[in-house]
Amino acid sequence: MFRRRQLLTLAALGTAAQSCRSNEDGRALLVVRGSIRKFTDLQARAFEFTEEEYMSLPQTSITTATPWTPRSRFDGPLLSQVLAHVGASGSRVDVEALDSYRASIPMSDLKTFRPILAHSRNGNRMTARDHGPLFVMYPRDEYPKTLSTPSAQAKFIWQVRSISVVG
């Protein structure tokens, strides 16, 4: 599963790598839709985060290793804060990456593990070439038995482009 995802990720780097890194081309850094109460696009019933708005959220750090990265410090807002910003309510979030990879995260994970939606690794802003622009990061080193299983690792989603909140 992870090998195929890595190959799909490389294929997606062409245009997506440049277009989602910033808002210079007018594209949103992150789009949240579904069961939310705050919208920037009422017709699409979606909230589109600009880089500036996303970076203004309270920031948190997690230092951990993953199967794809050495032990590193990841910085970004708690996923729960991103969802609170848009008035989300539901039982899970479905996260989609630039390469169309999708995984579901139960809302219970937000309290249990406090994952972040990281934008930086070791103080450097991530790009699509290095798992960015956003990477769902769990504190894997704090919960090695629980967060090292294949089903848990599937929720470490990199190159995040959108989130759907499901009731």
Helix content: 25-40%
Number of helices: 6
Which structural class do the helices and strands define? alpha+beta
**Separation of termini?**
28 Å
- Morphology: globular
Features:
single chain; alpha+beta; five-stranded mixed beta sheet; four-stranded antiparallel beta sheet; 6 helices; 28% strand; globular; disordered N terminus
Give a structural overview.
The structure is a single chain. The strands form 3 sheets. Strands 2-1-11-5-6 form a 5-stranded mixed sheet. It is an alpha+beta fold and 167 residues long. Strand 8 and strand 9 form a beta hairpin.
Helix/strand layout:
Blueprint: H1 2-19, E1 30-34, E2 46-49, H2 51-55, E3 60-64, E4 72-76, H3 79-85, E5 92-97, E6 102-106, H4 107-112, E7 116-118, E8 120-121, E9 124-125, E10 135-137, H5 144-147, H6 150-153, E11 160-166
Parallel strand pairs: 1-11
Antiparallel strand pairs: 1-2, 3-4, 4-8, 5-6, 5-11, 7-10, 8-9
Short account of what is shown:
The protein is of the alpha+beta class and 167 residues long.
